[in-house]
Amino acid sequence: MTAAEFVPDHGSLDELRAAVQGCRGCELYKDTTQAVFGEGPGDARILVVGEQPGDVEDRRGRPFVGPAGKVLDRAFAEAGLDRTTMYLTNAVKHFKHRPAAAGKRQLHQSPDRGEIVACRPWLVAEFEVVRPARVVALGATAAKALLGPGFRVTKQHGVPLPWPSSADRPEDFKGVPEAVLVATIHPSAVLRADDREAMFAGMVEDLTGLRGPA
Ligand code: URA
Ligand code: SF4
C-alpha cells in the first residue's frame, strides 16, 4: 500500500490538503485526530521537511506548532529566516505514537521505512506545486524520505547538495526541478540533548546558508 492512489493528479495545495484526510496509504491514520498537511505560500523559495506531526500538531492540524516547532522558530529567527515565507511540511502526515494511558500524553514513535515510502507521494505532490529553490531536511526521517536510506545527517549536515540528483531514488522526484538541499538535525533532538546550546548553535549554523535571494 502507498498513498499514491489517494493523491489527486495535479492537485493544488488546497486540493491536496483536503484529500490527505481520506488517505489510507498505510496504517498510521488509525488512532489519530487528523492528517497534518504542509503549510505556507505555494511559491515559497524554501521548503522545509520534518518527520511527522507530534501530539500538539495532531490535535491542531498544523505542522510545527508544538515544542519542536518553538525550537525551529527560534532557529529560523537566529538564522535570519522568516517562517511565514517558507513552506513547512513533514515526511509522514499522520502522527505515529504508542497508545497513551488515560490522561497521559501520547508518546511519539519514529516512522519506519515502509511508512516513509508509503507517504512519499504526498511529499512529492507538495514539491511539484511549490518547486522550491532550497530544501531543508530536518533530521534522519526527512533525509531518508528525500535522499534515500544511506544518508547520514550526523556526517553530512550543513553541506549544500544538488537535489534530487544526489538522491538514491531520484525517479520519485522526477517532476521536481533541481534545488539545493541542506540537511540539519531535527529540532526535537535539541530538546533531548544534554548540551542543548551547542546542538542549537549547530542547527542555526546549518540553516544560515539558506538566507539570500536566489
Ligand atoms: N516534529 C516534526 O517533525 N514535525 C512537526 O510538525 C512537529 C514536530
Ligand atoms: Fe496516508 Fe501518510 Fe497518513 Fe499513511 S501516514 S495514511 S500514507 S497520509
Automatic annotation (TrEMBL):
Originating species: Dactylosporangium roseum
Family note: Belongs to the uracil-DNA glycosylase (UDG) superfamily. Type 4 (UDGa) family.
InterPro entries: UDG_Type-4/5 (IPR051536), Ura-DNA_glyco_family4 (IPR005273), Uracil-DNA_glycosylase-like (IPR005122), Uracil-DNA_glycosylase-like_sf (IPR036895)
Keywords: 4Fe-4S, DNA damage, DNA repair, Hydrolase, Iron, Iron-sulfur, Metal-binding
Name of this protein: Type-4 uracil-DNA glycosylase
Ranges where the Uracil-DNA glycosylase-like domain occurs: 37-208
SMART domains: UDG, UreE_C
Signal peptide: none
CDD domains named among the record's database cross-references: UDG-F4_TTUDGA_SPO1dp_like (cd10030)
